[in-house]
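Task 17 of the worksheet. Students: predict the tertiary structure of the chain below and write it out as structure tokens. Keep your answer in the requested format; marks are given for formatting as well as content.
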Amino acid sequence: MLDDKSLLAWFGDPPASYRPQPFWFINHEADPQELVRQVHMMHEKGVGGFAFHARHGLRVRYNSPEWLNALRAVTEEAHRLGMVVWLYDEENWPSGTDGGRLTLEHPEFRMRYLRYWEQRVTGPQHVDIQPTIDDNILLKVFLTPLTNDAESAQPDLDRSEDVTAQYDAAGNTLSLEIPAGAYVASFFFICPVPQGVTFLNGWYLDTLDSDACDEFVRRCYEPNLAAVAEYMGNTVQGIFTDEPGLMIHDGFFGSRAFRPDIADPLRRLPGSVMAWSRRFPEMFLQWRGYDLLPHLLTLVYETRPEDVRIRQDYYRTATEAYINHYYGAIKRFTRRNNLKLIGHTLEEPIWAQARSQGNQHQVLFQFDWPGYDYLAMQNGIATAQNPARLLAAQCAASIAALKGGERIMVEAFGGSGNSATLAERRRHANMMALFGTSLFMPHGFYQSFAGERKSDWPPSEFYQAAFWEQYHSFADYLGRLSLVAHAGKPVEPVMILSPIATAYRQLAGNGQVNDKLDVDRVYSALSYGLLARQRNHIYIDERHLHLGVLSPHGLSFNDYVNNLDVLIVPAASILDDKTVTFLLDFNAYGGKILWLERMPDRTVTGAPFPGDKFTGDNNRLLQFDLDQIEAVLDAWRPQSLKVAAEPSEGALVVTKKAGSVYLVLAFNPLEGSPSECTLAVGAPDYSVEELLLETGEQVCRAENAQCYRFTLQPSELRVFRLTSGGAPAKVRAEAQAPSSLRSVKAQSLQLAHDNLLPLDHWSIDLSIRPEERPEGLLRFMQHTTVIRYSTRFTARDLPSKLWLVLDDFAQYLPAHYGVLTGYRSFELTVNGRQVPPFQSLEYPDHYSTGQDILPYTQVGANEIAIYVGQSNERPAAPTLQYPPLLAGDFALNQQDELIAPNPRQIGYWDQAGAPYYSGIASYRFDLTLSEPAQRIWLDFGEGHESLQIFVNGKLAASRAWAPYALCVPAEWRQGVNKVEVQVANTAANLYEKRRSRSGINGILRYAFTE
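Model answer:
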């Protein structure tokens, strides 16, 4: 937890440890000189550090000498610059396989599932059953009578018979004599995880196997010691582990085994899958004291009281094996080397948590700084209609609180598409800050964006992004968000009991895995409902309850969370026996319990739940109704501070306390409407100050006020600091928008780079006859099959510059044959004329290549053709990884034809002949003032994306989101002032070929301000 003094000292210029620390995708040559240069690029834009992450496209072997040399070089430079380094523990993701190599070399370490499949039969008759076996291994078969003939009849588990010995493996046939009546034949298979889903060509790791996990740490953790041992625990802060699980991906995204093949890439095996390991029966016997194998049917059916205990024991064993073996191996390494363990798992919803992680709370407790994943911003922020979006963040925040106020990490923004703006990032970051998120790790910064790397969960936020030149202000903003999020502790939180035991119980029924749990609905809706009603809350696991200390003041864990006297139990059908005893003691000390939807009917041992003991004023049973819940909470624990908002859904508020100072974070999640708010301070001697996230200033808003009224603009987060008994900070008041403004038109509009046209309409001829090949290409192509890519463009006028840009398209033959003969891997022609070899370019990516094709271009129609030779004697032919680009000083008409660039319309540049341009455009204004000034109010009207303002050649202000009106401090001269506004858009225009609105309208409105 950050104290108030440090918050104020660092707020203006956040330290590196609180600034964004992105995933840096090392996805090209690991050239130390180039990578060090990119470290400086990050540092210059206010980035605090990075996670060094081997990614798709890497051209050296992960953890090879070349890789480790690069790691050492960037770590040394980060150390010199005061930046933070995190080691990412895998090539690509998820963590655990050494880029797939570990399980290829040790197939005994690959993950396994337990697959269940059944067939119902009626006797008397003889049946031969041939199950879908694939590469599975049959573990057990049971024949069990059903209670009746109905399709939904339950098996009588007391009369189940093990008939595994009657299975003929050679013929894949189970031969059975079925007595009279209805029966179910139940098959359990050991099912290996499919190969190559996300792990290159390997299988995923058995994270429940100690030998497998130790080998992972040996291969992927230990090599770092040779490269950066002296920086461990200082510059190198720790290691990031990414999306491991006790079941991976098909165990998360579905309940059936995912078995892709070429004929059917979405093929699934019949039945349901559950977590397993090659040593699972032995672990279960050792830890639980009995053999699981005779009781496997209890994992998919519950017909007897003892079935409840067995299923709970199964999931607890899986969780403990995962924690002890996977996280145990990692933590032994990190503790030995003074490193933090950070990262995240597969988090939501509850049914998926239970299947992929077991007990998510116990798992997250293994991290020094718990984290979560917040990708794909198009999925929206948490709302009443989308409440599950907050589960992962709230779970991480709860664990951080129980650990004493540790920091919370988020892997943020990735997979959001090329159209994601800084404004959208800010909106989602504001929501994340409400949960205490204090380390933003953007996903990600791409070393290279060339070729197929563009498809790797874009966008890149690094130098390839048009807004990169303006990133420093956003890095400052994230740094201040992190400081505010980590400052103080929750005020008057209530506890919500995690219903994980109920999820285990509800996960299976009638022989099928259930992915629509009723407890999911209640849990997520309750959490969002409390957030919307400004109720701080933490999730608490049953096992964590016993770590607290009970007293008449409530339940206390540490100085960060204490005196907790209200517990909400959402839709729980089962509780641990020890928890029942604890809750009776909690009641006896005055603790209050709100039971939602129901009280449990069982304890974990199968005993009836003693509901008659939970009565009186300190226990309430309610159906799920947020208004009634709030009324009960108000009666039990009135709030000392609250913000009233209009509209009511227009503010999410979190109140924290740092010493004697209150911090109020108020966020408007609405995108189109402002919210008028009133902060009820509650005491006349409180002063209201605001911490301005965009500028780092501290402003006094009200002295000795009992209430303070303010407006929240759409997507805006405002931070108020309430102090009592002392003088407020004396800081200048903010400038207000003048009532009248003058207007001036831009003198010019200039693109910072060449205009761009994606060439995305290509014809492909798979076999070109020799007589159809250009004369100069005959010898090169004579022993090969020739493929031709061709496209056309029209030039109404010839520009003075015209380049063809090809991403990551190698024009050499890397063999002695190519070196000796000068042959190339492809040839390019424009209008039938051969173009010389390509050159390296700096734009749009440092790794782009291209060639000047103006000498080959003509007025009218033009054809570009790429001829590729393919033979068994040569490497694979290059292919068009992404649409090539035309770059030059042209403009485009509505038909995408090249026209002369001048005169260019001054305004939105998509209307000025540059509809696909991704980058920066500069608008220049002459602003004539009658007298000098220190500040001038500037209003750019409806803007798009982000802008920087230069006054007389010096950077004066930045604005990355609406409203695009602000007071600009500068040395404003009497007479003419040169104002340059640099506007940056996103990559959507270029890489998605959108004619999206970009820039400003070319009108600047201004006025003097007091």
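Marker's comment: The two ends are 39 Å apart (CA to CA). The CA atoms of residues 51 and 831 lie 47 Å apart.
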